[in-house]
Inverse folding.
């Protein structure tokens, strides 16, 4: 595919080797304007904002991924395979499944279960286990300790359905000690594995599936600072 792509107006060299990817493009804009020095917008196609700037002297990009694995699949694939990106760190929201995981907790996704058929494209003779880069997981835990931010590390589930029709599905994942549910990590981890690159998911709990706990859409956009600062510090 030629560059720019149908989804990204950036030219070769406009995007850093490390990219932070929130689902919400407005969160990408917030991160760029709040944390990056001299951010330059490299993409506005479909309002999926992307910016490159520096953080403590290091060049970093931040770009929205959109909602769901098909959208994450497109953007992360292009970044890895067309723009020479080496590391993508998803920073997003998730719904807690366990009693000891609460709203605003930070979860580092070590692996991503999924109900998606995304892996079928690889025609594997079994079930693929999408996992994050160990080096990025270890570094994220170290940075969180340095910053004084408690984190949970474990398995998450990436679901294709936000409004699922099976009321028992969340209970089944909860039974397997999956920490939380989100919608993008599994596709990101698979694209990274296929491209020989690195990926990580850092999530902030925005609501609880089994308790009446949730924060507003505005708070999701602007108040996940601890998660963002861990990702920037890696």
């Amino acid at each position: 595919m030629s560059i720019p792509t149908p989804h990204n107006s950036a030219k070769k060299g406009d995007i850093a080797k490390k990219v932070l990817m929130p689902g919400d493009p407005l969160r990408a804009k917030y991160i760029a304007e709040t944390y990056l020095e001299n951010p330059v917008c490299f993409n506005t196609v479909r309002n999926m904002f992307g910016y490159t700037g520096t953080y403590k002297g290091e060049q970093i990009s931040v770009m929205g991924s959109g909602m769901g694995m098909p959208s994450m699949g497109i953007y992360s694939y292009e970044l890895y395979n067309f723009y020479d990106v080496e590391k993508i760190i998803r920073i997003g929201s998730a719904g807690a499944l366990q009693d000891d995981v609460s709203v605003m907790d930070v979860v580092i996704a070590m692996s991503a279960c999924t109900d998606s058929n995304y892996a079928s494209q690889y025609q594997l003779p079994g079930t693929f286990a999408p996992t994050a880069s160990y080096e990025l997981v270890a570094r994220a835990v170290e940075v969180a300790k340095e910053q004084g931010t408690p984190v949970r590390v474990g398995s998450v589930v990436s679901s294709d359905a936000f409004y699922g029709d099976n009321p028992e599905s969340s209970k089944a994942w909860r039974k397997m000690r999956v920490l939380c549910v989100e919608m993008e990590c599994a596709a990101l981890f698979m694209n990274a594995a296929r491209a020989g690159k690195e990926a990580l998911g850092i999530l902030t709990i925005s609501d609880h599936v089994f308790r009446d706990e949730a924060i507003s859409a505005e708070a999701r956009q602007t108040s996940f600072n601890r998660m963002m600062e861990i990702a920037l510090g890696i």
